[in-house]
């Protein structure tokens, strides 16, 4: 499968890396759904993946983010209402800061699935529009949405006839770097690996951020380097069934971790 280079043309514009500031993160992982069982759709590793993302954020490469600026919601904690409430954390960010949403769980076209979803209903879905609004309302300079969910590439679809970049950044100049780092294309599943004990995408995402993607050995992992590492690893592990998507408006030198 060919490399999935779904990058806006403005990738090459010189927005530059975000200035040093604080990071605010909402991290969600749902393996055990209220209305599902493992036989009918529960996952195995999504909550574990979320905890590992938090461990990374609190590590040196992840920026040693204070626990007070992280909202971790797993399994029964990750209700629709709790996720919405957690996303208000992004309003505390200022220019120069970074906000991150990580979601691991089930995905549907144009939405992610919280713990208390009602099967067969459109109620209590974490819509991509809701997420884009949370990013739009934040004053942060850098905004990252990372999703390890089936069909997550559907997040690149325009909202209300606007481009994705407009949907997330047409807020008077707030947000010089806005990126969606998604596990799969809009028609693909996001695969869990028993061998890796996690989602294939999250496993290689964290491997890359912790140094495997530092191709030029400058102790910085940029978004371009991360794409170069994660995409082929995921495609190989899933035998071409899954191709990650990197999309948005950002500099290709945007630094994601400092080793």
From TrEMBL:
<dbReference type="InterPro" id="IPR029030">
    <property type="entry name" value="Caspase-like_dom_sf"/>
</dbReference>
<dbReference type="GO" id="GO:0004197">
    <property type="term" value="F:cysteine-type endopeptidase activity"/>
</dbReference>
<protein>
    <submittedName>
        <fullName>Caspase family protein</fullName>
    </submittedName>
</protein>
<dbReference type="Pfam" id="PF00656">
    <property type="entry name" value="Peptidase_C14"/>
</dbReference>
<dbReference type="InterPro" id="IPR018247">
    <property type="entry name" value="EF_Hand_1_Ca_BS"/>
</dbReference>
<dbReference type="GO" id="GO:0006508">
    <property type="term" value="P:proteolysis"/>
</dbReference>
<keyword id="KW-0732">Signal</keyword>
<feature type="signal peptide">
    <location>
        <begin position="1"/>
        <end position="20"/>
    </location>
</feature>
<feature type="domain" description="Peptidase C14 caspase">
    <location>
        <begin position="24"/>
        <end position="248"/>
    </location>
</feature>
<dbReference type="InterPro" id="IPR011600">
    <property type="entry name" value="Pept_C14_caspase"/>
</dbReference>
């Amino acid at each position: 499968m060919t490399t999935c280079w779904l990058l806006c043309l403005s990738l090459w514009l010189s927005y530059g890396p975000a200035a040093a500031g604080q990071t605010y993160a909402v991290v969600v992982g749902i393996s055990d759904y209220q209305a599902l069982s493992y036989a009918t759709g529960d996952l195995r590793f999504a909550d574990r993946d979320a905890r590992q993302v938090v461990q990374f954020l609190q590590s040196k490469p992840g920026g040693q983010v204070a626990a007070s600026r992280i909202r971790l919601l797993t399994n029964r904690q990750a209700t629709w209402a709790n996720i919405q409430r957690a996303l208000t954390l992004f309003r505390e960010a200022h220019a120069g800061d970074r906000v991150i949403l990580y979601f691991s769980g089930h995905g549907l076209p144009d939405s992610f699935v919280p713990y208390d979803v009602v099967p067969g209903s459109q109620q209590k879905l974490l819509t991509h529009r809701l997420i884009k609004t949370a990013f739009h309302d934040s004053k942060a300079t850098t905004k990252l949405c990372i999703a390890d969910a089936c069909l997550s590439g559907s997040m690149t679809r325009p909202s209300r006839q606007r481009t994705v970049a407009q949907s997330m950044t047409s807020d008077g100049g707030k947000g010089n770097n806005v990126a969606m780092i998604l596990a799969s294309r809009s028609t693909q599943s996001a695969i869990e690996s028993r061998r890796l004990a996690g989602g294939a995408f999250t496993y290689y995402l964290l491997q890359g951020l912790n140094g495997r993607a530092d191709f030029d050995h400058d102790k910085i992992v940029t978004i371009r380097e991360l794409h170069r590492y994660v995409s082929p690893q995921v495609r190989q592990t899933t035998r071409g069934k899954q191709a990650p998507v990197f999309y948005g408006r950002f500099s290709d030198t945007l630094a994601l971790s400092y080793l």
